[in-house]
Structures are given as C-alpha cells and as structure tokens.
Amino acid sequence: MSGISLQGISKRYSGSVLAVDDIDLDIESGEFVTLVGPSGCGKTTTLRTIAGFEKPTAGTVHIGGKDVTDAPPYERNTGMVFQDFALFPHLTVHENVAYGMEADGGYTDEEIDARVAEMLELVELPGTGDRKPDQLSGGQQQRIALARALAPKPDALLLDEPLASLDKKLREQMQVELRRIQQEVGITTVFVTHNQEEALTMSDRLAVMNEGKFEQVGPPGDVYNEPETRFVADFIGTANIFDGAVTQTEDGYVSVDCGDVDVESTATRETAVGDDVSVVARPERFNFQSSTADERDENVFTGEVTFRRHLGSSVEYRIETAEGREVVVVRPSGLDEHEPGEQVTVSVDADNCRVVSP
Amino acid sequence: MATETSTSDGGESGRAGLKQNAKYYILSYPLAWLVFVFLVPLGMLFMFSFWVHVPGTGYTPGFTLDNYARFFTSSLYVQQLWVTVELALVTAVVSLLLGYPLAYYLARIDRPWLRNVLLITIISSLWITYVIRAYAWQVILASRGILSSLGVATGILGSHQSFYPGYWGLVVGMVYVFLPFMVLSLYSSIRNLDGELLEASKNLGAGPVRTFRRVTLPLTKNGIASGTSLVFILALGAYVLPRLLGTPNQRTLPVLIEQQIMSESNYPFGAAMSVLLIVVMVVFLWALVRITNVSAANIGGGEAVAGEDETATTSGSGALSGLWSRLAGAVAATGLGRVYGSVASAVSNRIAVVDSDTRESVIGTTFRVYVAAVMLFIAAPLGIIVAVSFTPEEFLTFPPGGFSMRWYVEFFTNPAWVRSLVNSLTIAAAAALLSTSIGGVLAFTLDRFDYKFGALLGTFGVLPILVPPVIIAVAFLVFFLQIGLTGTRTGIIVAHGIFYAPLPFILITQGLSELNRTYEEAAMNLGASPVRTIRTITYPLLRANVVSGALFAFILSLNEYIIAWLLSLFLVKTIPIQIFNQLRYSYPPTIAAASTVFILLTVVVMTAIDRLSGGIWE
Q1: Residue ranges per domain, chain B?
Q2: Which of A33, A322, B235, B341 has the fewest other C-beta atoms within 10 Å?
Q3: Per-residue pLDDT, A120
Q4: What class does CATH assign to B77-378?
C-alpha cells in the first residue's frame, strides 16, 4: 500500500478561474481522507488531478512515492468510483469487474475469474456476474462499481461523490459498508463529498475546501470542535457565529464587540485589540437559565423561542433576542422543554466559545 | 517543487486523449474528401459556367457570360424558372394543408401501435426512389389506369382519359413524394406541444376551433415553417417527378439542366443553369429570413417558444438547426399557416348554429375522414405497385387479372436486370462505407478536439446533403470529366459517398454527444489505453449510431437516380436507371416486380435501422 502526496497543486482552467490554489496534502498509506466543501470549491478537480484526468497547472502528484504528475490516467493505478457509477452498460457485471485486469494484461483467465468472484464476495453480491448493470438496483450498482475499482489492486481508491445518487436510507447504509470494505482492504482512500455529515462519519481526516484552498485539515472531532475559520465552523455542523472586533484581551480570554452584544471567548488564536474576528459557539454548548445571573465568563442571551423542532435524541430551539439576533440552541431531549413564544434566557460559557478568523 | 506544465490543453486531458498534433492528422482524412472531392467539383461547376460551348466537340476553357446571357434573354428559360418556383411553392402549400391534420392526429393519438404502424408506413415510403414512386402515379393516372377505370366504372367519366402528363398530375405526384417530410416535421413539433395547454384553453371556455387557432397553431408554427421550407427546397431541386409526370411545359430547371448535359452535351450551359438554381435557392431562403426579421416584432407573443423545438430532420447539428430555426420563423411569417385559421373559422361559423356537442362530433368525424384520406394517399400507390407486380398478363392492369410470379422470374433471370441489381447493391455498399468513414471520422474529431473553426467544420459536414442532387450530379460530372471517372461505378460511389456522408455524420455526432464521457474515464482509470478505450468502450456504445448511419447512406444510395444517371453517361445502369429507361419506352410488368423487390429491400433495411436504434423515430 502506498500514500498520496500533493505538493503545490494549482489548476487554472483556460486562463481564467483558479479552481485549485496551491494546495499541499500528504495522505498516509491506508488512510481515509475526505475532501469536503461546497460545489465549485475545487474538491473534484483535486480528485481528478490525482486520477490523472486533469493536468495541474503547477505542482506535483506522488502516488506510492512515485511522481505521476505527467502520467496519463491509465498508468496511475488508481481505482475510481464515479458519481453515477459509470458501469459499462454493454458489459456484464463480470466483464465490468474484470475490465481493469484485462487491460492490465498480466492476469490469466483463471486469476481474473477468481479475483472477480472474490470482489463480488467482498461487496456481498456473489452470483451477479452474468447480469447487466441495468438489472441492478442503485445500491447494487454502487457495490459493483466499488468491486470494479478494487479488482486490479490499485494503489489508491478515489471516490467521487459515490453516494450522492442514492436515497437517504441507502446512503447511510452504504457509508458504513464503504468504510467497512475500505478498512478490510486497508487501501489509501480519497473521498469527495459536499455532504459534511458524510465527511464527519466516514473519514480518518477531512480536508475542508473553499475557493480552491484548504481551510482546515484534521480528524473529524478536531474539525468539528476546534474549527479554525468562520467558514469551517459554518460549513461543518451548525454554529452560532458572532462577528465583531476585539475590544480586550486578557488572561487567555477575549472580549468581542458584535454590535448588539459583547461576547467573551477563550483566546483560541492570537489577536490584538481592534482585530476583526468571529466567535463560534456550537448550539449544544448552550444552557437554559432560570434567572439572569450574570457571571463574567458567561455569554447570556434573552429572547423569545420562535421555533422548536425535535431531532430525536435532541431538541433544537431558535431564540430571537430583542436586538433581532437569532441563537440556535440544541438540548438533549426531555431535559428542559420550552414552548414557542416563551421568553427564555440561554447562556454559553466563554470556555465553550472559540475565536476564529473571520 | 512546483513544476510548470502545459496549460493549453485545459479540458482535453480527460478525454480519450490522443496527442495534440494527432488531431490534425485525423481531421485531414474527412477534410481531404470534403475539400478535394466536394468543394473542388462545386468550384469547377462555377468555373465551367463561364466556359465556352463548342457544338459537336464539347467545350473549351475560357471566360464568357454567354451561358448566362442565353438564359436570361430567352423568355422560355425565364418562364421555366418561374414554373419551377411556382411548382415548389404549390407543392409546399398543398403538402402543408394535407399534412397538418395527419401530423396532428399522429401526435395526439393515444393508441401507440396505430401510431407506429402509420409512422412506419409514412417513413418507409420516404426512402423509396422517386422513380418508383413516379411510376406508381403513372399507373394510377394513365388512360385506362386506376383513376380512369374507376371514373368510367362509376359513370363519372364518359370515356377513358389520362390525367398525366399535366400540371395537376405533376402536383399530385410531387405532393405525394414530399408530404412525408412535411408530416414528420409537423409531427415532432406537435408532439412537443404540452397537452395541458390545450386542456387549459378548453377549460377557459375556448372551443376546439378557437383552441386550435389561438394555442395549437401559434405554438407549432416552427414545425409549419421548417416543414414548408424543407418541402419547398426539395421540390425546387426535383428532377424525376417533373420529367415523368409533367408535360414539356412543366420542364423545371433540373429537367432543363439534365437535357443540356445528356441530350445536348452542353456542359457549360448546364453548369450555368445549375449555378442559377443555387442562386434562386439562396435568394429565396434569404428573402424568407428577411421577411421574418421584419415581421417578428409584429408577431409578439408566442415568440418565446419559437426557438425551442427542433425538427426530427435537424437534430444532431447545431449549425443545421440554427439554419432551420431561422427558416422556420421565416415561413411562419409568410402566413402560410394562416390559411388554416381562416378555413377553420369559416367552418366554425357555418356550424355555429348547432350545439357544441354536435359541433365537436362533426369536426371530429370530418377530421378523421380527412386524415384517413391523406393516409390512403400516402400508402396506396406503393401498395398498388406491389399488387400489379403479380399480374399474369403482358401489360399492367388493375385489379390484376390473376396471380403469377412470372415477372419476378423475368426480373431475376434477365441479365440486364440482374446486372443492374448487382450494380445498385455494389455501389450502395461501397458508398455507405465511404460515407460512414468520412462522416464518422469527422464527427469523432469534431467531438474530441477543439479546432479553431470547429463550428464551420460541423456545417461543412452537413453541407453536401443540402445541395440539390442535380447540382451535385453536374458538379461531379464536370469534375470527373477532368479526371476520367465518368461512366464508372467508382465515380458514382465517390459522388454518393460524399453526398450522403452527412447522414452518418449527424447520427454519429448525436451518438457522441449523448455518450457519457465518464465511461471512457472509468476505462482509462482501470488502465485501458486510449486505443483500448475506443475499441472496448466508445465504439461498442456508438455501434448502433454507426451502423444506422451506414444503413441510411446505403438505402439512399440504392434509391438515388439523378446523380447516378448523369455520372453514368449511359455506361452504368442501376435499378432506378433501368426502371426509368424502361418507363420511356414501354411498361412491362417487370418494372413493377423490380420495384417490389426494391421496396422490400428498403423496408428490410429500415426495419433493421429501427431495431438497432430502439425506435429512432420517437
């Protein structure tokens, strides 16, 4: 097995838009890394650069320590699963899965048959070899696409939004399945998605992309709990974001004037008075308060519950303050129930807030 | 460290990427054919029109305007020019009046099997050579022919009389031949019409006539325009019909051109008239476009939909459909469609006195009878040919006086017919291969590579089929005279190969544009080289389009008359030529047997195309 290394990759399309802007990424052997971001952020271009479908304008691509920057797609030994699966419609499942090994030329017919059977076993669809792709359900096509990509023993598995065309239930099932197979095979994997939930649940590390750059790269827990930029906080999960200017820094705490409210936060980054920053507080870090006890390190908001919805294990409230700011609070189900229209006070500890770049 | 790599090939590396300069090598193949064997002959045609005719010996190079002067100073020629244009217009208008109700019926019918049967009938007749179809009308219109016999039998006619040659006999034949083009253009346009719009109109209180005039007609005017202009252009270039069904008074420009070439051997004058025919065509199209632009402002509402639909004949080529939609608007503006509105409202006024239920059923019944009559008009003639081919008698009678295969035996044992059949099949097969290689390679290169003049090259790819066949014929004749290919099968193969290359080009272009590129990327990701990818993925996915294109070229070449005839210089005989020649002297029922064999052959090939494409007509 082998890792992937991207160094200084940039991609400019026909002289105009910079789709990927000087990114570096080292993916370890066997690691599952997700590129996540909104559409147009450059994640697919990055994946296609690894696969060799796009030539980078600048930078190098190494797969397994070998420089493949100038190698065509068919000499890279990557296995890709496409968004619409791209199972060859005129070939049977067996012929699809065998395609890569036949193109390779280094396998005997017996080896190919054995490997196809092994792959169909791996994706739990044994005995489907004689079928045509259009005789399979969406989920089955997905599995066959995976089997086809893995059959020629690629150095890396590349997944381009492979779950996007499945319905919600199947998608969640396939998330687990995909991860299981990936770990079983132990293959280096790059996964592209715009779905932040998918990114959080599946990856060893995720790289949040925006406008051709990495905003943050790290394990799911770190990215969620310790976002470094306003974009990451906003894109991954739900966040209350307070934009303002630093008025005071002291003892590892920062005060930020957000216009309608002053917010206290732990100083999670170096700031000076006057800097524009954003303060992030996750909804589940808030508490309801019975009185308006005003402690120094607590941010307190009073307002009316405008909206409430049950999420199963938790309840989400939207609270509008007198100044018109909306605060989202998520509380465990059954702890403290508040009705829409009710006046409430919520607070979040300064230690549960983070200062991020705006 | 960061390495600078080439950026000029931006979007291409993901395609079945071949090397940069390969794109010029590959393009050179179709381009060489189209330039040296299509543009050069057309250029030579133009040049020839200024050369000097030497009676007896032929022609000498030079520069004279005598050929053009001769045309314009002769009231005969100018008058025949007008006859040509008038005939084309009358054909177009009559086709529209007959075709619209039929197309409407086909588009709205809720029994799919009946629609398929009717569509296949209409489409099948489309491909059968004009020679056989003109012959069918001779059989019907001749003295003691079917019409005459019916007239006498029912007492309408006092004695037998012939309805051809003559103006109206010719119009009937022309409409018969070109009506399918009209119906198909209108059909696709009416099919695109959202049925809910009609329901909405009725819900708002509009009766069927008002709904038709205010909703259906305005929304289908593109189909009306494209169908009308298509029929007009085809009729303008028609040779066989005026020659076989018209009197000398109805000698159209194509007929006069053929006479100059084959009877008078006056190539320069024939060339000059060919150039004039092109000019007339271009001027007419230009005028139509101008008229649209002027009146487009007045039309106002409904224009938004105008650009949206595409006719069946144009799908696959941006350039062509652009041309088409402009033509479409043009003809719509000439007000041909309005004839319908006024006829419909006249009928409506007449029966407004009765209640709406009766009115709807009267309209419904009239409509159905009309559609059935038009359908009979399209289907019957070829049926009659098939029927009379089994006559045991020495001459054609209808109904045939018995059943016999003797004329089929005659057809398959007579060396002249057999030689013609072999010639026809050989030429068509070779021409189909040539067409497909030119059209296919051009389609592939234009799809895969970016060229500076890509759009222009695409237009170039469909251009040959837009030139009237008689002009192609004369252009290739003057060209082949120089290189010694006249009177050979090779010459006809080359001419047909170029002329029909647009069909595979359009079909393969369409296939490539519908081909999901991800399949090729998936193949390359799995380690397949570009050549392997094309062999194992691209070609298999395109095969139906490639084979259909080849079969179309085959069937058209098989049925083509005028190009083969002019290039044969009496030395090569194909089945259409053989039938045509026989029609000049006598009417042995062998012609009917030969025609039936040809009709059968055509139907078989068309069915194969339909199977291959899984219903290309929808």
Answers
A1: 77-378, 389-618
A2: A322
A3: 94
A4: mainly alpha
